[in-house]
Design a protein that fits this description.
Rossmann fold; 5-stranded parallel beta sheet; single chain; globular; alpha/beta; 322 residues; 11 strands; 13 helices
């Protein structure tokens, strides 16, 4: 009996990028059911992949960990395929420390530069989830036409039992890594009030300090409960409203409809909700897109791309999709 194919996949972070690796992981499992698939990812994101049916092992890498120690552990295995889905300096160093042939994801820098920095009209970039497949050409895998998938555990589900209101509710995800991607706090409060009038309570989700991005208004606070429980909570929501963020992708990965708010970034850069039931709200402004990932301050100092998305418009989108 031949040994199983051993596959090493590296994607350190962040949340949305890790979630978007799952269509590729699923395709590898489908092509090689007996494969032994190990994923290297950030310690923060590791819990999301430990229970994934396409993953056999997760190697978490935390802020205080040494790359050489990680490489020493991984060199004990004879890998048949090595896939770098990060393309960062750290992942390249890891490739040097683990000799062998690597497939790698190349960021579409030219395509992004044409849209963001040159301001040129360009065809939409392929979804990032599909771009990743170029790093795995040696495996001969193709997308299966479905979105990302994350599977909360029974423990995750029990952790949110007391947080979920009776009946349908809407998840609000006001956080984003960069300030310009965040819808204004008073808008979130206004949305929660509008939804409450329509009989839809809100539950605010995200990191522990994301509740501060909502200025007043109703809404249960479920921030800081952990990624697994957050995924379980998002799965129970009738719909989720999110900025262009990791939680937007996490909501799609538990098959919950999403209203996605795009401002300084645009879906054409490859990060639109992938193969998901979603409504994308955005404003056509001559200064958009001004960034690939968002920035700390609006370069034009007006932030109209987000301010002009009204709570009424978002509430209507929720009513249409929930």
């Amino acid at each position: 009996m031949s040994a199983p194919v051993r596959v090493l996949v590296v994607r350190f972070g962040a949340l949305g990028d890790v979630v978007l690796t799952t269509p590729l992981l699923r395709a590898i499992r489908r092509a090689s059911p007996d494969a032994d698939i190990t994923v290297v990812t950030g310690a923060t994101w590791a819990p999301l992949l430990r229970q994934h049916p396409a993953v056999d092992a997760v190697e978490p890498f935390g802020p205080g960990d040494r790359l050489r120690d990680l490489a020493n552990r991984l060199r004990r295995v004879r890998w048949d395929h090595r896939i770098d889905l990060h393309g960062s300096l750290r992942s390249r160093l890891l490739r040097l420390l683990i000799p062998g042939r690597w497939g790698s994801w190349r960021k579409p820098r030219l395509g992004r530069a044409r849209q963001v920095w040159a301001g040129l009209t360009a065809p939409p970039l392929p979804p990032v989830a599909e771009q990743y497949f170029a790093a795995a050409t040696a495996l001969g895998v193709t997308p299966d036409g479905h979105g990302p998938d994350i599977h909360p555990t029974d423990e995750d589900e029990r952790a949110v039992d007391a947080l979920v209101p009776p009946g349908p509710f809407i998840g609000l995800a006001p956080g984003a890594a960069h300030a310009t991607k965040r819808w204004p706090g008073p808008h979130w409060a206004g949305l929660a009030e509008l939804l409450a009038r329509r009989g839809l309570p809100s539950v605010i989700v995200g990191a522990a300090d994301d509740r501060g991005f909502v200025t007043g208004g109703p809404g249960l606070d479920a921030c800081g409960i952990g990624l697994g429980p957050t995924a379980a909570l998002l799965r129970r929501a009738a719909a989720v409203v999110a900025n262009d963020s990791g939680l937007m992708h996490l909501a799609t990965a538990v098959q919950t409809p999403v209203v996605a708010l795009f401002g300084p970034t645009t879906p054409t850069l490859g990060y639109a909700p992938y193969r998901a039931r979603a409504v994308i709200l955005e404003r056509d402004r001559p200064c958009r897109p001004c960034s690939v990932y968002g920035t700390a301050h609006c370069p034009m100092r007006h932030h109209r791309c987000m301010i002009d998305l009204t709570p009424e418009e978002v509430a209507d989108a929720v009513s249409a999709i929930a």
